[in-house]
Specification:
By secondary structure, this protein is an alpha/beta fold. The protein is built from 18 helices and 16 strands. The strands form four sheets. An eight-stranded parallel β-barrel has the order 1-2-3-4-5-6-7-8, surrounded by eight helices. A three-stranded antiparallel beta sheet has the order 11-12-13, covered by helices on one side. The chain has a three-stranded antiparallel beta sheet with strand order 14-15-16. Helix 16 (377-388) crosses helix 18 and helix 17 runs parallel beside helix 18. It starts with a strand and ends with a helix.
């Protein structure tokens, strides 16, 4: 195990937060983004708890990751059942992850009230569950649930539970502040005491119920912890988990620990925004390091100072985490973001190219209208091609119509769309029904175009998200639509914005189709 490893649980613990839900396809896309960002372990879910997590571990085997290992989460065996016969344990092994993490009870209060077993039997449950799993998979972690509360209540027994795990030769024991109520000044002393009894590498998993999760994690690392668990944007149950978007730059730049590379750190803001977008939540603009306001300056004294030396009112350079300095009265930043994206898409731009400024101005204007390109990389690439004059015209939509009709009171609503397209000199007219107006329009476009471009049959619309843009206009507000599509090899996102939900959807659908044709 390297000096400090990063263990992300956005896809499991993060989804337990209120308003957080990811489709299977979302989880796969997020896993790839986490891997790109240098995360060492990605906890994909609890395969024994729901069909979606079972499907994730089945599908993730088809994916390739540069460095990240996929972890499955579960619990110790149930009382009076051998590990090899416990369904939860069996399901974990069948999921065939790279790593298995299970939790067990540390707090004697939970042993008596939740498990309703003796303290000795709980120790046996921890030890034999881990022994069994170590025989099945190469790497096993143990989450000591409620460790800090358990230690404060009964330190002798809490240490015994850790010794039971250590005796099973686990690879890391993670100390959990599950209720999130421990204070930073308590952490260092407790961890130092644990290290006197436990030689196994230690990790940390904190919750944010007292707004101390990040601080507690950093104190733990300073005290010798070697694995850090958390979630992107601090998503998680109740008040959330430790926020990796704050922890990672603190580890890298404040504690000088090489947990990820500099280039991976520069992707942090992009990762944060990507997860927000797939969660269909507005980003927290005041979030440390990665938020829009993290390096924004408005006061006259501040603006005057940072124009001479940014360090006067900035604790670090924002570019290190993919963010930018912003002067709110006149936005001076953004060009570097465009250049980075151009490089990613293998598009030739330089900072002095007038096209760079044109793209930047265009994006700023579109963002004022409500566009967001996090999670809509395909639309962004097409926008850049448009500015460079390399965006091909594969077809022209001459017109379309969408009708919703309820033919009889007791029958379902029928959605029908008709489109007229022109490819070369040929005009094609097609009509199709769908389960809703957007699906009908999608079906009609595909029906008209597949005659000319058969490869479009491979494209599937797998997700559709709608965001009402804040305006105070009620049902007349603007709409942002994010569509996710895939073919046999790739997945991509596109975006559309309009005061009309059908028009916004049409824009995103059109970008999805054009992106596919550009890739042929």
């Amino acid at each position: 195990m390297s000096l400090v490893t990063l263990y992300d649980t956005t896809l499991r613990d993060g989804t337990q937060g209120e308003d957080i839900a990811f489709l299977l396809e979302d989880k796969i896309r997020i896993a790839h983004k986490l891997d790109d960002g240098g995360i060492h372990y990605i906890e994909g879910g609890w395969p024994g708890s729901n069909p979606k997590d079972i499907a994730f571990f089945k599908n993730v085997k088809k994916e390739k990751f540069a460095t990240a290992k996929i972890a499955a989460f579960g619990s110790t065996r149930r009382a009076s059942i051998a590990p090899g016969k416990d369904n939860n344990i069996i399901t974990l092994v069948k999921a065939a992850p790279d790593v298995i993490t299970i939790f067990g009870k540390t707090w004697d209060f939970h042993v008596h009230e939740a498990l309703r077993v003796s303290l000795e039997e709980n120790l046996e449950m921890i030890n034999d569950s881990l022994l069994y799993l170590k025989q099945q998979v190469g790497e096993v972690f143990y989450d000591a649930e409620h460790f800090f509360d358990g230690y404060k209540a009964n330190p002798e027994y809490a240490i015994k539970t850790l010794k039971a795990a250590e005796a099973a030769n686990v690879d890391c024991i993670i100390l959990c502040d599950t209720n999130g109520g421990t204070m930073p000044f308590e952490f260092a002393q407790i961890i130092e005491n644990v290290k006197k009894h436990i030689a196994t590498p230690l990790g940390i998993h904190t919750h944010n119920d007292s707004e101390c999760a990040v601080a507690n994690t950093l104190v733990a690392v300073h005290s010798g912890i070697v694995q850090v668990q958390g979630t992107i944007n601090g998503f998680g149950e109740r008040c959330g988990n430790a926020n990796l978007c704050s922890i990672i730059p603190a580890l890298k730049k404040k504690l000088k620990l090489d947990c990820i590379t500099d280039s991976q750190l520069r992707k942090l803001r992009e990762l944060s925004r990507f997860v927000y977008e797939l969660a269909n939540l507005p980003p927290d603009k005041h979030q440390a390091y990665v938020g829009d306001s993290a390096f924004a300056h408005k006061g006259g004294v501040h603006v005057s100072a940072i124009q001479r030396h940014p360090e006067t009112y900035e604790h670090m350079r924002p570019e290190l985490v993919g963010n930018t300095t912003r002067v709110l009265i006149s936005d001076l930043s953004g060009r570097s973001n465009i250049l980075a994206k151009a490089e990613e898409f293998k598009i030739n731009l330089n900072s002095k190219d007038p096209l760079t400024l044109e793209i930047l101005d265009n994006i700023k204007e579109m963002e004022n209208q409500g566009y967001q390109f996090e999670g809509a990389e395909a639309s962004f690439e097409l926008l850049m091609k448009q500015a460079l004059g390399t965006r091909r015209t594969f077809f022209t939509v001459l017109g379309y119509r969408v009708i919703d009709e309820k033919r009889h009171e007791n029958e379902r609503l029928v959605s029908e769309a008709t489109v007229r397209i022109k490819v070369g000199g040929k005009v094609e007219h097609a009509a199709a029904e769908g389960s809703g107006p957007v699906n009908a329009l999608d079906n009609a476009l595909r029906k008209a175009l597949t005659k000319f471009y058969p490869h479009l049959k491979d494209v599937k619309l797998i997700d559709y998200k709608v965001r009402v843009l804040p305006s105070g206009h009620g049902t007349a507000s603007g709409i942002r639509v994010l569509i996710e599509s895939r073919d046999k090899e790739n997945t991509w996102g596109t975006v559309g914005v309009s005061g009309n939900i059908i028009e916004a959807s049409y824009q995103a659908l059109l970008d999805s189709i054009e992106y596919k044709l550009h890739k042929l």
